[in-house]
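Today's session is about reading a structure prediction critically. Students often jump straight to the picture, but the first step is always the sequence itself: look for stretches that repeat, for charged clusters, for runs of hydrophobic residues. Only then move on to the predicted structure, which in these notes is written as discrete structure tokens rather than atom positions. Here is the chain we will use throughout the hour.
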Amino acid sequence: MPAHEEMAALYGRENLFTASAAELEKFALTPKDAEALGVVGLPTDSSPFFTTQVEGGPEFLAVFDVTTSKGVDHREVVIGGPPGDPGMRFSLSAYEGFITLIQFDGPRPKGEVVNNNLGEFIEFLYQIRLHETRSADDPAVRDESFRELSSRLRAIDPFSFERPDDWWFMALEFMRG
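Below is the predicted structure for this chain, in token form.
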């Protein structure tokens, strides 16, 4: 996971959200996720894959407490969504720590785990933005940088690339095209 200074250098301090101590207490996150959200920060916009500036509901930082059919308490915190898609949200599972992409279209919400924890999710956004910044003006650099990016992300979280319909697998295919 990048440090706050690295995130600020890449995104700009004004484009990072860090949660307050009161918000972190309310969310009841794992210590690792609390550090990621309270110290490192979450980019407010990392187009084309992520934004905290979601349209419609549920809103950014909405908290949902549910009890599963097995009687287990579960908390979800909305951390953003794909830009321009009001029917999808990224959610942080407060107790388990994984990141889920939830699709609200249809009769019942559907979810897909996209990363094992918030630190990995932030690292993915950071590495993608770093690739975009480094390779913006040179196609030769872009191809090599993309290969390195793909290898790096797969090494961080191989689970996110197991199936061709996984979110990050499709995101990389979009970037390649």
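Discussion point for the tutorial: Residues 1-171 form one domain.
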